[in-house]
Inverse folding.
């Protein structure tokens, strides 16, 4: 056999080995978007969605704390007691759920108040609809839709 041919074959095998070793590790760092129908609960996601201003800390607990702090500030900043509810002295706790999709956008906002106060529910939906784009959540190395729920309390002082 030709010595040049053997050298080329060794180089080829070396390059192929590098490709086999490198490609799987680099693709592990690129999240793949799942089927858009799949939804993961907020507290089940490996990496929760993040607000602008929150950075991945490496600690899930810190990421959740930053998310909760930012959403609380958002509610306080945008909260307006509905005039009709104020006049009629309507109080209540509205449970709001929404999806942060795999593009980081808020969708499917739903509100439920046990006494079915549409006025309070509408205000809760309005507040959530003002949320800006998030860094999407990640689960099992893939970008996912994440469902989040929280109460918003309407109390007259």
């Amino acid at each position: 056999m030709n010595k040049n041919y053997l050298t080329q074959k060794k180089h080829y095998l070396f390059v192929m080995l590098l490709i086999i070793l490198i490609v799987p590790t680099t693709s592990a760092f690129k999240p793949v978007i799942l089927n858009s129908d799949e939804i993961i609960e907020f507290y089940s996601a490996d990496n929760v969605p993040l607000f602008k201003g929150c950075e991945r800390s490496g600690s899930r607990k810190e990421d959740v704390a930053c998310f909760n702090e930012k959403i609380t500030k958002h509610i306080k900043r945008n909260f307006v007691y509905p005039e009709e509810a104020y006049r009629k002295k309507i109080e209540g706790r509205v449970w709001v759920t929404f999806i942060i999709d795999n593009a980081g956008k808020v969708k499917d906002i739903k509100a439920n108040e046990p006494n079915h106060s549409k006025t309070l529910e509408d205000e809760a939906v309005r507040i959530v609809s003002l949320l800006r784009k998030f860094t999407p959540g990640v689960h099992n190395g893939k970008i996912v839709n994440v469902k989040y729920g929280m109460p918003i309390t309407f109390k007259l002082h």
About this structure: Residues 40 and 146 are 5 Å apart (CA to CA). The first strand starts at residue 39 and ends at 41. The chain is about 40% helix and 20% strand. The helical segments are 3-27, 60-78, 83-87, 118-129.
